Amino acid sequence: MADYKEIFGKLAGKVKEAADSSGVLDIYAQGTERAKALGQIAKLSIELKSEHDELQRIYTEIGRMYYEQAKAAPEGSFVPLFDQANRTAEKIRETRAKIDDLHAHYGESGERDIDVEIGDFDDIVSAAEADAMTFDFENKKPEA
What would the pLDDT profile of 7-59 be if each residue is shown by its tens digit? Predict the structure, then answer.
């Protein structure tokens, strides 16, 4: 009978030799390095997006502050942008007023125009089953 430990040891040695000689370890190492690099790229991309968002927030705040300071007398190329901002702000006020009027007229107190009673689920299912049992599928109408 063969000594399995000896056979297994020889086989493991051959596998190790094949791995060392064929560059499998080098390929594994390259794959590991590439995976690390891709992980780092993903992390840096998230950081970059966060920085872009922060810069956008800062630009917006600068614009808001400048608008508040110069809205009475805009100058140069800002005049059309200030006019556009004023028109848009007026549309917002008009729409808000319409919404407020609708709320005032129809109320938000949860009042309903009609009362609807919803039966017990089992009752609804039973009624639907009874209707189905008396339906004439051939003529596509309830049985008389």
Answer: 777 777 777 776 666 566 677 778 888 899 999 999 999 999 999 999 999 99
Contact 142, 131 (CB under 8 A): yes
Contact 143, 135 (CB under 8 A): yes
Identify which of 54, 51, 53, 55 has the alpha carbon closest to the alpha carbon of residue 43.
51
Residue holding tokens 């800062």?
A: 58
User: How big is the chain by its Cα radius of gyration, in Å?
Assistant: 38
Cα gap 78→53, rounded to integer Å: 24
Q: How far is CA 123 from CA 3, 90, 126, 139, 142, in A?
A: 76, 54, 5, 27, 20
Q: CA dist 83 to 51, 63, 94, 131, 140, Å?
A: 31, 14, 17, 65, 64
The answer to pTM > 0.70 is no
Neighbours of 80 (CB within 10 A): 10
For 81-108, what is each residue's pLDDT tens digit? 999 999 999 999 999 999 999 988 887 6
